[in-house]
Specification:
mainly alpha; three-stranded antiparallel β-sheet; 72% helix; cell inner membrane
Length: 398
């Protein structure tokens, strides 16, 4: 009996561990960010949750439920082959446009902005779906029209810009300039990756920057955000209040922070402490060391997305390559804007910190985006092992 057990363990020792067909590091990075977000939302939302509901952990339990829903959705998304996303990319874009129209006609208004469709369990924000849908559509478009994008301006280069313009018009009606800027930067990045001519790219960037400046000038509240960004201490109890409170949180954090749960600014001083400005609470409670670790996790996630996109191109999976790069640019720029706004580096834009901030739509859509990255990597590994993903006839015709 003892000899049989010994022989069995000896046999296991001699066998090589099976190769994983997905990126385990990406899974752990994403889960790490999600768990960090759950802890920080619980800490940052404690005072406002107690005031609004009488329950100190109301927003924490709700965020946990949304996190569970996000993981359930991602478990479904990761099973969808890439050729299905390619085939239905236009359908997803049309669905996003319909949802944006619905939110303009019958959306829920909060703080003067109509961005949500109430669904009972949570409020759906179509802008998050529109972002992801646009990037999927762009990846499919660049696969089909790559040569046109590289050779012609009005034929291949301008068509996706027109599509972006339609979405931007609907988003500005909410209004939601932050999402428009994230879309614009990601679309520009994808066009650059696709090999658009440099003069076309630079000309479009200049037009885009001019358009954003014009949109800021014509809206008084956006101008107030800009002026408060330039000198928040000029009006610390008015237009600069949110930023000055955020900067105080950063200052109190020092190297190692005040300790988890010991933030002062979250005690009704810093507005939106568990949503847009959760990073300020992170800085105050966990200090420079905690901020650095979280930024390293986000950076690792972005690098993973870029490398997955690169591997997809090398495997001949053009759609997965563009989509991987698009998700990487999206996560990187949105994180930069959120962190920059909290630290006073860029104007406040109301964008969530990926996988960390409180918000159902953002959490679900970004978790789904990570699942798509896992699917891209999975199919590239299958190709590397000589296994082809089965495609339906209608997808081959597309």
């Amino acid at each position: 009996m003892v000899s049989q057990i010994t022989n069995r363990f000896a046999g296991l020792k001699g066998q090589e561990a099976p190769r994983a067909l997905f990126d385990r590091q990406l899974v752990w990075i994403a889960l790490g960010l999600m768990l960090t977000g759950l802890v920080m939302v619980a800490s940052a939302s404690f005072p406002v949750s107690l005031r609004l509901t009488g329950q100190p952990f109301y927003f924490m339990f709700k965020h946990a439920a949304l996190l569970g829903l996000a993981l359930f959705v991602s478990a479904f998304v990761v099973q969808v082959p890439l050729h299905k996303w390619l085939h239905y990319s236009t359908h997803l874009l049309v669905l996003s446009i319909v949802l944006l129209l619905v939110v303009l006609l019958a959306g829920k208004s909060v703080n003067g902005a109509s961005r949500w469709i109430p669904l009972g369990v949570f409020n759906l924000q179509p802008a998050e779906i529109a972002k992801f849908s646009l990037f999927i559509f762009m990846a499919g478009y660049l696969v089909r029209k790559q040569e046109e994008v590289r050779q012609t301006f009005f034929g291949g280069f301008m068509k996706p810009i027109i599509v972006f313009g339609c979405l931007a018009t609907l988003l500005l009606g909410q209004p939601d300039l932050g999402t428009v800027i994230v879309m614009l930067v990601t679309v520009f990045g994808l066009l650059f990756v696709a090999g658009a001519k440099l003069w076309q790219f630079l000309a479009l960037v200049m037009v885009g920057v001019a358009g954003v400046v014009l949109l800021i000038i014509i809206e008084p509240y956006r101008m107030r955000r800009m002026t408060s960004f330039w000198d928040p201490w000029e009006d610390p109890f008015g237009s600069g209040y949110q930023l000055t409170q955020s900067l105080m949180a950063f200052g109190r954090g020092e190297w190692f922070g005040q300790g988890l749960g010991n933030s002062i600014q979250k005690l009704e001083y810093l507005p939106e402490a568990h949503t847009d400005f959760v990073f300020a609470v992170v800085a105050e409670e966990l200090g420079f060391v905690g901020v650095t670790l979280i930024l390293m996790l986000i950076f690792a996630l972005v690098v993973k997305a870029i490398f997955i996109g690169k591997r997809a191109f090398e495997s001949g999976e053009q759609f997965g390559g563009y989509l991987g790069f698009g998700i990487g640019i999206w996560f990187a720029f949105q994180s930069m804007v959120n962190v920059g706004a909290a630290a006073g580096i860029v104007p406040t834009k109301g964008l969530t910190l990926p996988l960390i901030s409180y918000g159902g739509s953002s959490l679900i859509v970004m978790t789904a985006a990570v699942s798509v990255l896992l699917r891209i990597d999975h199919e590239c590994r299958l190709k590397g092992n000589g296994i082809q993903v089965k495609e339906q006839n209608d997808d081959e015709e597309e």
